[in-house]
TrEMBL record, chains A, B:
CDD domains, per database record: RsmE-like
Ribosomal RNA small subunit methyltransferase E PUA-like domain: residues covered: 13-59
Protein name as it appears in the record: Ribosomal RNA small subunit methyltransferase E
Residue ranges annotated for the Ribosomal RNA small subunit methyltransferase E methyltransferase domain, each copy included: 68-225
Subcellular location field: Cytoplasm
Organism: Spirosoma taeanense
Catalytic reaction annotation: uridine(1498) in 16S rRNA + S-adenosyl-L-methionine = N(3)-methyluridine(1498) in 16S rRNA + S-adenosyl-L-homocysteine + H(+)
Amino acid sequence: MHLFYQPEPVQHLTEEDSRHAVRTLRLKTGDSITVTDGHGNRHSAVITQADARRCQFRIRDTQTTVPRPFSIRICVAPTKNLDRIEWFIEKAVELGIERISFFYGQHSERRALKLERLEKIAVAAMKQSLQSFVPILDEALSFTDFLKTVSEDQRFIAHLSDQKPPVSLLKAAATGGRYAVLIGPEGDFSDAEIHQAVSVGFQLVTLGPNRLRTETAALTACQILNVIQWEY
Amino acid sequence: MHLFYQPEPVQHLTEEDSRHAVRTLRLKTGDSITVTDGHGNRHSAVITQADARRCQFRIRDTQTTVPRPFSIRICVAPTKNLDRIEWFIEKAVELGIERISFFYGQHSERRALKLERLEKIAVAAMKQSLQSFVPILDEALSFTDFLKTVSEDQRFIAHLSDQKPPVSLLKAAATGGRYAVLIGPEGDFSDAEIHQAVSVGFQLVTLGPNRLRTETAALTACQILNVIQWEY
């Protein structure tokens, strides 16, 4: 199965996918392809014009996946070593995640982040794990500006500070919610940031007894919010 | 804090750590170091001879961590791209894992595995996450030989086949156990292997609704077996 990604409601592949389809895979007019829009739709289609810059197709059939009855938004500071964020995105897409937001904390080491490469990783992971949704990736903002974007009703903040929060995310989160989880940067949150988050409704939680790297903590939060939904 | 690893009950660093301590960090006689043995002991020590080939130290004080009241053994086929297993080991050590075993399945693509590099990654992750245990890493065996080494009482096998097992690892595992979890290779288990595992007491379980890569599945099993122990 040749799987392509076209987020727009048009019947031609992106320039990159057109090149890949026609030049690399040598697909021809009449060949069958599958195109996902990353919003839950997966089209069975046939190539109508095998143009390496703008490969046209016609949709024959569309399978629509409904979104999960809960949503996970993980909010994280970019790690110094970007591989770690890239890895997190791949894994989070495999597990299912709706949105990833980035912020620069007082103790963040990295102060620049390009989304383009991260979006490619998200799309590749979506294809590989046979899913139909690609998460929203938000441009990095200052912590204060980021907080203004939070509309989720279930808000949690996980951090490393010495006084461990008495409750885990596992017990604090109710099923079926819209979750926003703040994960501390490598240098952890400042006290001021924690105070600021708590003042807009974020609850302090722990992700377990161990000290976790930023990206491991972020993935652990996804796992926990997934498993509390399971009824089997 | 300068943290070193010496698994043997001796009061000198390994050759590699000696070089690192004396040449790279330029530690001198009289300097304080911390040495963990990977079996739960963490020694506060002082350097008595700053020799770059065999740095001697004297233990002043030892902190002992008791093992967890449960144990997790993940049994996995080496992935084609070894980075993925390396990544899994780093993350599993952060989360806490007692043992990782490797087997060659009928559908495994990789047929050779050197443990030396994996052991280094495990030790580095143990140091980084401030833990005192390094997991046992077993040499890769054939699937049949591997099965003979299983002594754990709670045995689970996670695989991708079309008929999803009706029960998740979350619900099937009882707390406080000694767990062995078999994770399917990239080409999944063969029917014969699944049958063989079931015949020695492995229970079929699912790790959730999504199709996961081998290393993501392995880490998901660790996460699930951790969270079922949490009482907070």
